[in-house]
Structures are given as structure tokens and as C-alpha cells.
Amino acid sequence: MIFKYLLLMLVSSVAYCRDVDESDSCAFGTYDYIVVGSGSAGSVVVNRLTSDENITVLLLEAGGYPTFHSEIPFLAAAQHLTEQNWGYHMERQPNFALGLNNELMPWPRGKVLGGSSVINSMLYVRGNKEDYDRWAAGGNPGWSYDEVLPYFKKSEYASLKRMDSEYHGIHGLLNVQDVPYRTKSAKLIVNGFQDMGYRYVDYNGKDQMGVSYVQATQRDGRRCSAEKAFIRPAEFRPNLKICLHRRVSKVLLNENKEAYGVQYIDSNNTEHKVYATREVILSAGTFHSPQILMLSGIGPKDHLSDLNIPLVQNLPVGEKLFDHLAFIGLVFTVEKPIIIDFSQSMAPTSLFNFLVNGRGVLTLPLGVEAFAYYKTSAANYSENYPDIEFMFTSGSLHTDHNLFFKNTFGVTATVYEALWKDLESKYAWSISPILFHPKSHGSVKLRSKDPLDPPLLYGNYLSDPENYDLRALIDAIREVQRVTKGSRFEKLGTEQVRTPVPGCEQIPYDSDPYWECAIRHIPSTMNHQTSTCKMGPKSDTEAVVDHKLRVHGVKNLRVIDTSIIPVTLSGHTNAVAFMIGEKSADLILDDYYISRQ
Q1: What is the pLDDT of residue 350?
Q2: C-alpha angle 196/185/348, rounded to 5°?
Q3: pLDDT tens digit string along 119-159?
Q4: DSSP string for 409-451
């Protein structure tokens, strides 16, 4: 079995056969716009700007082209173990991640053309109407739900069996589809949650509260990344230059605080400068956009002073970071083979079915098949929107028999052997509660003045003084226990795995203190970090960019990625990043055409 897996990875590890510009030609010439980073937002901006043949754009990306195995949804977790991931970890936090290697939680990010959309789980979740109305209420005109919905629809080419059609687009470049393969356990979950009071919903439609099969960014069963959807249709336009393996180290600013270009480091560690006549656009993501700003002298005065970086503009860059925390220890066994069959997924027939037909078990994105949404008793708002997402996986960390899931999540060998090893010979699935609206927040700081040093990433999870985050997660665990006691589950012999988490054995099992201990031992990020370059008016002391995503106090410089999200989300960040890219492209083009009148 291991041989088959390795053969699959070997056969599919070849990068797409396209030329990569490794010369110094990127450093020659001047462009209207320079876009730094090719993730979901940046790719959209590049595509939309270059649709006008009179606009010239340079795209700088630190990674290379995606490899073919990133196309395979079932191998999404394996992408985190490749060079397509920056390989970051959050800084160690006391009494947290105690069951992870070195007590460090992996924080993956895509280092590849297409960014994190090449290594993520392809789960398309926009969030709730209330999220965007809160954006607008915070002093950001143009970002209410009714105003951003057209941009979600603009990107989307939806082909879903059950959807609220007025909320979806059918002419966009980004494919959003039902996953072609479903296990019987997925049907059990969706029907079982409905038995216990949840409605079936299109969670990207009129109402999010309920249960549903996943909607995924897939095209014919394969990954539909930002690179596939937006870069490929544009990459041969004569007004677009794409330069890979270029690490931007700073924005070039003149004495009037105007951006006029960037400095970057090529694959030979040689520095170059390249120039923009109109704007520099940072789409480097929640970690690297703030890093580049701070290296350029735009950031917190005291932090930059500590590193002897001359201050250009004092702004709270990186001072607030939100993330969605998940608990991965809720696992259930059943008596019948209704889950993912790993041996089947690694069979040559499965690979053939995937490659030829875009069908079969390999189309399952990390094994995730269904979502349900829930408002806990800890929520302190009256509106009916969720603070918890239940993510159902037709398997668990044991599914791949210790090939890559354990290492992807950073779980120690001791914890894996205790909790998951025995499940390799059983039928087991999992539900992960995900906290949407944490009160705790982290931050991003510079490690040093060296642009090649990774940033310091602080999660600061479960640190809110009111203990809301823990109370919400424990409430969510109780709700899963309630639902899984329904008759449909009982008929299949559903049993919760009650093996104590190593380090929590002395606490009475199933007590609230036990679940707190378990959450602190085996948490996981959902890789939804946001808000390090928060959008807001000048009067907002936490804001870095305005509602047009222009950096406060600096001209010709915008940040366009999920770092601008001002408040916590009831959704996943990839869908939102595409929307941000679409709306921002219109903002830029509006300014461009006005300037030419």
C-alpha cells in the first residue's frame, strides 16, 4: 500500500510543463501595476486588470508552478508536506498544542502560483450575511452583504444539484461543484442532523443555519485553484508578465510617501528593483503582506524602532490576527463499512477513474463531506447566525494508516498511537467543531530585518478573559453528542471513541475540564488567519487600509487579500478572497478610468 502511494506521488509530482522565467528580465521595464502574490485575491486582480490590453501588470510570486498531484482532492493534506507550503508554525504558547510535535501548531500557507488555493481543502464557504453587514457598519461603505454578493456571483460557475439559484453565479471562471463521490456515512450525517432538528440548506444561499453536503472549488472532480481559474486564462496576454521564485523584500517609497515599485530577491539571492507608474498591490496574504509593509517602514512605531527600521507610517500592521480553531478529537465508530476505504483509494483503478473520468474516492477533499452550522449558548449576540461549524469527515487521522495526516496536523507519535492507531482496523469517522467568532486574537511580528526570515506568528488561542472560546467549543461537543444519539446513528451501532487523550487521563472523562484538556492538547487551525491589515476608516485605531484597500497615509499602495478582513467570519477564507479580488479589481479600474478622463 505504501508503495502504491509513493508511486502515485512520484508519477504525479511533475510540475506543469510551462516555462518559468528565471532570468533578470523581470527587473527591466516599468509597469502600470505590480501585484505581489498570486493567491486567490491576487490572481483575480491580475486577470481582471489585464483584460484591458492598455494596462500592463507584473505579477511577482515567491513559489513556482503547481505540481500535478495538487490536482487530487484526496491528497490535499499531502500538499502541506511539500515545497508548495511555506512550512510555518505558530510560536509556542503556554498550555496549548500540548499533543503536537514540540507543542507547535502547523500554520500552512501556499508558496506556489495560486497560493493557498493550491494546497487547501477546496471547501467553498462564503460566510453569513451578518458578517458583511458588520464590515459596512464598521465604516467600510460598499462592503455590505447586498453589495458584495454580486462579486461572489461574478467569480462563480456553480453546478450544484441543490442551491438557491439567485445567490449563485453560473458564468464565472471559478468552478463550484458538488463533490462527485459520497460515502454512505455522509448521507448518515446529513439525514441524522435533519432528524435532530437541522434543516437542509444551501449554506451559501438564503440561510446558513442547517446542514448540507459540501460545495467545493472543483472542476470535473479535480482542484479548481486560483491559478487554474484566473491565471491560466490570462498568462499569455502580452500585457502581463509573470515572474516566479521572486521574494519581495520591500515596497519602494519616495519622500512623499508614494509607492513607486518594489525590491525583490530572485532565486540566486540577488536583489532587484522594479517600478510601477500607478500602484503597488500587496496580495501576499495574511502573513506576508504585513511582513512586507513592516520591512518597508509601515507598521507599529515601537516594533519597527526595536528593529532599527526607519518609520515611514505608524500603523497597527499585524497587531490583530483572528483564526478559526478546530478540535480534532471527536471520533466515532460504526459497525458497517460506510466510510472511506483507504485501500480502495490507493488502488490503480481509483487513480484511473480519477484521471480519466474525474470520479471516485480521490475526488473527496481531504475526506470532508458535510457541514452543519450551530449557534452555541455562549454566543453573546441576538442574531441567528452560527458561531460553530461542524465539519464531517468520513474518516479521521487514522484513515491513511499514518502516511501523512498525522504529520500534516503535527500530532505526536504518542498521541497518535493512543487515539488513532487501533482505529486503522475499524470503521470510524469524525466531526470537528470549528469556532467561528473567537474573542482571542493573535498577531504577526517581524523576526528580524532580514526579509528571508519567517515572520513571528502568534495564535494566542483560548486566552479571552471571559473564557468564551472554550465555553463555545465545549457546548459544540455536547451538541455533537446529542445529535449522534439519534435513532439513525444507533441503528448503525455508532459509538463515540472514549480513549482518553494522553495527558488528560487523570481528569474524569466527558467532564467539561476533560474536554478543555483535550482541546488544549489536540487543536488544529483551519488555516483561516485574517485581519493583520484590517480595513477601516482613519478613525479606527486598528485600521491599516481604507474601504478602497488603500494603505492609510501612503499613496499608490493597496493591500488586497484576506488580511484586510475587519471582523471574524462565519465562513472559510478562500471564497472570501475571491470576492475581495473581484471587488478590488473594480475599485482599481474605476480609479484608472477616472484618471484617464
Answers
A1: 86
A2: 165
A3: 999 999 999 999 999 999 999 999 999 999 999 999 999 99
A4: HTB-HHHHHHHTGGGGGSEEEEEEEEESS-S--BEEE-S-S-T
Q: Which domains does the chain have, with CATH numbers?
A: 2-595 (3.50.50.60)
Residues 6+ apart with CB under 8 A from 429: 185, 189, 331, 332, 334, 339, 392, 393, 394, 395, 396
Neighbours of 280 (CB within 10 A): 30
Quick one: average pLDDT of 389-398?
A: 96
Q: What is the pLDDT of residue 13?
A: 43
Catalytic residue among 245, 288, 552, 572: 572
Point out which residues pair with 488 in neighbouring strands. none
- Pick from 573, 572, 556: which is nearest to 564 by CA? 573
Strands (E) in 217-342, as ranges, are 218-219, 222-223, 240-243, 247-253, 259-265, 271-282, 298-299, 313-314, 325-327, 331-334
State yes or no: 331 annotated in a binding site.
no
Rounded to the nearest angstrom, the gap between the alpha carbon of residue 175 and the centroid of all alpha carbons in its chain is 17
Question: In the numeric block, which cell numbers belong to residue 112?
Answer: 506556489
pLDDT (average), residues 518-525: 98
* Options 437, 528, 547, 552, the catalytic residue: 528
Whether 528 sits among the annotated catalytic residues: the reply is yes
In whole angstroms, what is the distance from residue 124 CA to residue 120 CA? 11
Residue 342 pLDDT class (50, 70, 90 cuts): confident
572 is catalytic: yes
Tell whether residue 368 is among the known ligand binding residues. no
Q: What's the CA gap between 418 and 345, in Å, rounded?
A: 25
pLDDT band at 17 (very low <50, low <70, confident <90, very high): very low
Predicted confidence band at 10 (pLDDT cuts at 50, 70, 90)?
Answer: very low
- The pLDDT tens digits for 321-340 are 999 999 999 999 999 999 98
User: Look-up: residue for cell 506521488?
Assistant: 9
